[in-house]
């Protein structure tokens, strides 16, 4: 590690990517930490990488960093990116706080310009980023991403997006400390695309921080490109379909007819310009009206949501698969492929092979499609975890040909056309008391399509014979159901009402049967949560993946209640 290491902690904004490019240019290892990590995790990352400089916003400095500065002894300088902060906080131990404008003036001095000319160029094997993953379990791990990894990853991704050029506009709103957003923005920078910055709270006209009657960021920016995690797409899908249910019978019939007609036509490779203009124009306008490519990553996208986005937003949805350990790159589906549930073929930077997993019953010799744990190789496979040799030996290996591979822990199957489908995850597979294997991820994917459910975590252990679930219900839908059943009270009282648990369980059971879940996969008991799961609560990652260990701890009393006190 170089003596100068820089941590970037901030929201998704132009200053973040500009500072990152400067670090790449001067060969300073860049450390990224999610803004939602707890104090202990932040201090761990800063100390492990021996950070000397932090670039952040005044708000994050006050709310997240100030309390842990005494625990980070090597830190010397903090640069605040706000253009004109009214005041800078006093910090302990002589840590110097700088305004970004003052730093720019310092860099413009003649003696420093000469230093810039003499800067050392990075080589491909140098560390560009140490990216701390929030992780679904345990303490965050720092993934070492080299300059070679970044170039390989963005080359592979860009090859799947046709006609990328300076006429495109990308809207950035996911955390830049996440490999999906960083990779997407670097693809745009490498092709001259414009980037506009937003946030999940200001994205659309209906977003929580947009004043009623005002325009959201997508309406103002009119982006042509957007990356999204399934959680965001699922919300859009459910919101629109709820509005469809509120339409008059004539309007609803026309919408359903147009929807089914377009689904049939695009499966044959045809366009439906009349339907797009007359029926789906209003839905398309939710994302600005100019969207030409939507990319989904971070977790599997449900078939219903993918079809909805394809049809109603009148643009292809490229579903991708990649991990921080593979620089976000792995596969992206061809934009002309309208099949659902698949993540496409390997990118030009990636090789994929399937390894037998006997315990789960997945084998590369399976017919008709080979199945097994996904191993990913290629120049996009990162250098490993920082200062964690044991984990490196577990998850990475080099074959006899010198090819570096990463063991993903995900289970996939290859289809005859070379496309990959994610069908399971080793950590999500639980063996029940009677010997049946339950895929918790599969159960959740099926049940999340239920309009009554905003989020769900399935849980099981090998000492029990059935699955249980924790459910974040949709407030509007559950409130309507409560009124229908004559149950009144506050939102918390409704969620804690035993009768409501029974009603929701019945609806979930019907959805599970419709989704063709096996009897032993259907939750037998549930707990309704009045509290939404957000990265700020610590129950999901910044990419909205479930943190099962934290969820288990949070709902331990309910687990004991639902399993009869065992």
From TrEMBL:
Gene3D superfamilies according to UniProt: 3.30.300.30, N-terminal domain of ligase-like
Pfam families reported in the protein's UniProt record: AMP-binding
InterPro entries, per the entry: AMP-bd_C_sf, AMP-binding_CS, AMP-dep_synth/lig_dom, ANL_N_sf
Catalytic function, reaction form: a long-chain fatty acid + ATP + CoA = a long-chain fatty acyl-CoA + AMP + diphosphate
CDD domains named among the record's database cross-references: LC_FACS_euk1
A GO CC term assigned to this protein in UniProt: plasma membrane
Stretch forming the signal peptide: none
Record domain AMP-dependent synthetase/ligase: where: 12-386
Domain of life: Eukaryota
EC number: 6.2.1.3
Family per record: Belongs to the ATP-dependent AMP-binding enzyme family.
Protein known as: long-chain-fatty-acid--CoA ligase
Naturally occurring in which organism (per UniProt): Sinocyclocheilus grahami
Lineage summary: Eukaryota, Metazoa, Chordata, Craniata, Vertebrata
